[in-house]
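User: I'm curious whether this sequence folds into something compact or stays loose and floppy. Could you predict its structure so I can see for myself?
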Amino acid sequence: MKFSIIIPTLNEEKVIQSCLLALQALRPDCQIIVADGGSSDNTKAIALPLADKVINSEKGRSRQMNNGAAEAKGEILIFLHADTYLPDNALQLIRQHTTEKNPWGRFDIQLSGDHSLLKIIALLMIWRSRLSGIATGDQAIFVTRQAFAMAGRYPEIDLMEDIALCKSLKKISRPVCLPAKVISSGRRWEYNGVCRTILLMWTLRLLYFFGADPKRLAHFYRRGSIWKR
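Assistant: Here's the prediction. I'll summarize afterward.
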């Protein structure tokens, strides 16, 4: 089996069916693994008939993705959020561009939603990623099993795990930046306010850069603010 797609979930009953249905055409060449962090809704029941494996995991996106990777049979791992959709030719593009010298990468991104600023945010995400070599989980990071192991897997921290993994992978190679776009939901941006979320995310990144505790940052992230009491 060439690919394994690993999807971390926690109470994603509203989006998981659509996510998994979009992946069915990739089977059986692609293994689909849902790593659930203890959903209290119907996420697991919906996922069971549409995935190759649905596993229970300790809550935390990094832990869930690591546990999913431990169950993977594919040579290339694709980490996909439940509200993100791969481009139609995703596997072909990954197969063409992933090599021993370039064992990991990510896609460009389009944010779905009605707010006019979402297009600008997506463009900034793309160029920030190209310049820094750092990808976010929304961009569907893909990596060979060997490179993932060499990088030490996802560090089991409560936030910024994608940044930390990319920093480790950059020691192996720069990422393959595929121009094909994943479509990721802009729901969090719209729910919390686009400008407010931009400010929050850049502040969290800056605090992480200066050594702030990811557990504390995750608290701010879930709350949607660092200023509320």
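Summary: The longest strand covers residues 176-185. Residues 117 and 194 are 7 Å apart (CA to CA).
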